Amino acid sequence: MSSVSPIQIPSRLPLLLTHEGVLLPGSTMRTSVDSARNLQLVRSRLLKGTSLQSTILGVIPNTPDPASDAQDLPPLHRIGTAALAVQVVGSNWPKPHYTLLITGLCRFQIVQVLKEKPYPIAEVEQLDRLEEFPNTCKMREELGELSEQFYKYAVQILDAVSLEERFKMTIPLLVRQIEGLKLLQKTRKPKQDDDKRVIAIRPIRRITHIPGTLEDEDDDEDNDDIVMLEKKIRTSSMPEQAHKVCVKEIKRLKKMPQSMPEYALTRNYLELMVELPWNKSTTDRLDIRAARILLDNDHYAMEKLKKRVLEYLAVRQLKNNLKGPILCFVGPPGVGKTSVGRSVAKTLGREFHRIALGGVCDQSDIRGHRRTYVGSMPGRIINGLKTVGVNNPVFLLDEVDKLGKSLQGDPAAALLEVLDPEQNHNFTDHYLNVAFDLSQVLFIATANTTATIPAALLDRMEIIQVPGYTQEEKIEIAHRHLIPKQLEQHGLTPQQIQIPQVTTLDIITRYTREAGVRSLDRKLGAICRAVAVKVAEGQPKEAKLERSDVAEREDTKGIVQFVNCVRSMVFHVCREHILEDEKPESISDTAELALPPEMPILIDFHALKDILGPPMYEMEVSQRLSQPGVAIGLAWTPLGGEIMFVEASRMDGEGQLTLTGQLGDVMKESAHLAISWLRSNAKKYQLTNAFGSFDLLDNTDIHLHFPAGAVTKDGPSAGVTIVTCLASLFSGRLVRSDVAMTGEITLRGLVLPVGGIKDKVLAAHRAGLKQVIIPRRNEKDLEGVPGNVRQDLSFVTASCLDEVLNAAFDGGFTVKPRPGLLNSKL
């Protein structure tokens, strides 16, 4: 054996008393320092010392004696181990303590204790040298790991100075351990080669498990799951880059203890990777005729939208690798944007998945969370793909105009990559950290307005306007779809209830005012619930009766039910057949009456009033325009088009203009433009104030009010309405009650085009108006208005305010000067 320089330790060593195990030369252990003596030793020697010798300690195994005084030094074991302090870690909670990482160097024997306080210091004698046993270091380290179970044997080995004595003590322990391993191997069931390979790399602590215990069974089950997961990774069709990442992660997983938090995180990640549809897709049904029939059956009207879907199918039939377009349906609520997306998926034969984006303000909802903490998860896009199980579904991004923004990022910016056909073939979710191809996904977004959608996101989508329905379209939708759905939901049949089209029209015009059909659907549901109560009350109760009772009541049972029904019936269908003074005195007399049929129950206007209450919307246009200074404008809102009354009054004052009705800055500017134009053209139209002056604001205040003050109003399209309202006020003439108007004005009296013409025209049609004044440059927008609406309305296209005023007043706007114009206050 080659000569090795012996380790020389100082003759005086501070003593560290430990009760956590026995440190042998060549082994390493961690020990806690919490007693007063050991704390003083660490602070004085290890934390303040600078030389190498200050980090060498004498480690003495010590068994605490509860009966001994903590102030006195306990009896010391005479043999110890000189150790090198490799690491010191301290903490102050819940009380001051340290953790030492120490490595054993050699044995020593205590000659005498030189000092006891604040920590013991002893004169020592080195007993062995490192070169005497260079090949036994590894053996001592393994025995040190088992020192908790074989504490007394380890002390005896520590006391054995000579090599021969140590071999005599350690060989029986090794033989005993080998026999235990052989017995354990015999009791285990044979496993597959893959399972054996997994077990081989598990921690050595598993050899201490008792075969057949619950812990052992859980480990075996977990190993089987890992083997299955590894098999799925090998057989999956994921791209090469994703496969490399999974192979790397499965190797890390095999080496992790199950108690580590990262174990569950890595396993969840691998399970998601094998479940994603990397190459799994559905085959599109490309029968254009069948698709047209299906769309027509599911949705009435919406011709422009259905045309675009059929165009996509036709191009897909000619070119199989067409990238999915990014469609955005924009329209008021209740017009069927979401249901159209579902019908598109049904037409194509694809899976459908809806992602609600309303209120989302964290970009991680789109891109996913990074796998840096427990609880991270993929974004909604990847999670949706996992849910549908194919890589070419129809994704409906609902309410894309209601995305928020916060400190967690901008989800609208995160959608830029998702909704870009040139980029989404390489979409990278933060959780996956590998690219996924989204180019085969058909994205459909819905929104009520484009005003709140960022310009960059809006540029990536193809906008398809979905306007509101006309009254005729609502009637057809109600009788084709809504009424059959409500009957099915309430357990009714057409033989029990009938709702004529004239009744449906009354519901549309008097109980709802909307662009869609949601309120109409709720009103129909209320009618069905009321009828369901009457039907349930008329059904016979299930009861056990004697045969004589049954025979006696058989002829009169239906009559009694009918009489009770007539007394409380709210539908007034058969009310004229039975009068109060003709009530029979007995059941036998009632049996002689000729009874009208009870079913079906017919819903007429009287029944509507009893069920739904008084009409919510009455035609008040003629009453509102019974005085000068009132005009009807047309406004666009995210809920569809609306009619808007503008009222004006004048009074003595200092020439001030007051605006009320929660108006925006643009509408306020339109009001100032209108009064300025009228003042500059007062002589032309012979408009004077109450004092006969052509200066309309001379000693006169004007108040403009826009009703429904709780609703914010803004936009330039009310300009022509304000001019007409003020012209009516100063001329004393009434505006036609069947005319509505929209258009922006300039200071020179020009009428400029505005948006939302179709929705505004439909609103005028719903309100029963007959004439609509629009800017001449908006004439092209009338092509989108349904033909029946264009037939019911007359349109006046104006390029200047002169044409607007001539159309808004009967006989044109030619005013002759006359004294004492009407001073009207509304």
UniProtKB/TrEMBL annotation:
Its EC number is 3.4.21.-. It is an enzyme of class 3 (hydrolase). Residues 625-811 form the Lon proteolytic domain. The active site is at S717, K760. One of its GO terms (cellular component) is peroxisomal matrix. ATP binds at G331, P332, P333, G334, V335, G336, K337, T338. Keywords: Acetylation, ATP-binding, Hydrolase, Nucleotide-binding, Peroxisome, Protease, Serine protease. GO terms for biological process: protein import into peroxisome matrix; protein processing; protein quality control for misfolded or incompletely synthesized proteins. Transmembrane segments: none annotated. It is found in: Peroxisome matrix. Residues 13-253 form the Lon N-terminal domain. InterPro entries: AAA+_ATPase (IPR003593), ATPase_AAA_core (IPR003959), Lon_bac/euk-typ (IPR004815), Lon_lid (IPR054594), Lon_proteolytic (IPR008269), Lon_Prtase (IPR027065), Lon_prtase_N (IPR003111), Lon_prtase_N_sf (IPR046336). One of its GO terms (molecular function) is ATP hydrolysis activity. A motif (Microbody targeting signal) lies at residues 824-826. ATP-dependent serine protease that mediates the selective degradation of misfolded and unassembled polypeptides in the peroxisomal matrix. Necessary for type 2 peroxisome targeting signal (PTS2)-containing protein processing and facilitates peroxisome matrix protein import. May indirectly regulate peroxisomal fatty acid beta-oxidation through degradation of the self-processed forms of TYSND1. Interacts with PEX5. Interacts with TYSND1. May interact with enzymes involved in beta-oxidation of fatty acids, including ACOX1/AOX. Belongs to the peptidase S16 family. This is Lon protease homolog 2, peroxisomal. The gene is LONP2.
